[in-house]
């Protein structure tokens, strides 16, 4: 199986690369510098050259607040790009795996969202991601769209790393405590995508294609998530002290884009069809902290050698 990855510089993209390096698969990965997914000519050229069996699109415009003032940039990455990929994958006979988001929902539900539930995004980011889904559904027969939420990892910028940084700088942190969701480790998303890729490349069963959700195995709030991260980091020696974490309301922390108050995703359909379990985000936090602690130690050792030398 040959796999092409777009969005290689993002959290999921980097986790995919980490995993693909450990396989004997034929693969290549592209960031924005080597492939603009909204550039039809460039995408066609790369697909014709590499001829992948599966294209995993991890590229997206993910700045939720900036999307409100940069609608053209958000639309280019989240609508035009997926349409270009869908049309060309259809032409090339290549399956398309695409990552979407919980922001396609209104956040007014009281039970976990399933893929069949009605959508209703409240901001431009969610609107562009939803339209991107629709373009893929319209133009590419062999597609899997994977909605996920609250992504974190050892790579890039994310809520977990922000909390660790702020914990070193401040005595008190104020974190929103009235939004519920399912934290999801980017490495688990990468694992899920590769399982799906293997299945659809080996099977002609059209019933495996379609729309799925993949999230954490236990709902929480941003505040509770932050407390868990800080507590685990303190236990593992990444933090020498623990700041006081105070829960606040969404109204206390206004943002340009409205956040869903409830964005818990049900992963049951994905588990049923592919045997993929929801993301155990608590174990993943521990694993990420281990990686960050190792990187911190390596950096300290490198600095010590430089000064001694």
Write structural notes for this entry.
InterPro entries: dTDP_dehydrorham_reduct, NAD(P)-bd_dom_sf, RmlD-like-bd. Pathway: Carbohydrate biosynthesis; dTDP-L-rhamnose biosynthesis. Keywords: NADP, Oxidoreductase. With 309 residues, the protein is α/β, with parallel strands linked by helices. The chain has a single domain, classed as 3-Layer(aba) Sandwich (Rossmann fold), CATH 3.40.50.720. Helix content is 44%, strand content 17%. It is built from nine helices and 13 strands.
Count of discrete structural domains: 1
Strand percentage? 15-25%
Low-confidence stretches: none
Q: Kindly state the mean pLDDT as a whole number?
A: 95
Beginning-to-end CA distance, first to last residue:
47 Å
Tertiary shape: globular
CATH architecture: 3-Layer(aba) Sandwich
**What is the string of SSEs from the N terminus onward?**
EHEHEHEHEEHEEEHEEHEEHH
Taking all Cα atoms into account, the compactness measure Rg is 20 Å
Query: Oligomeric state of the chains?
Result: single chain
Under CATH, the topology can be stated as Rossmann fold
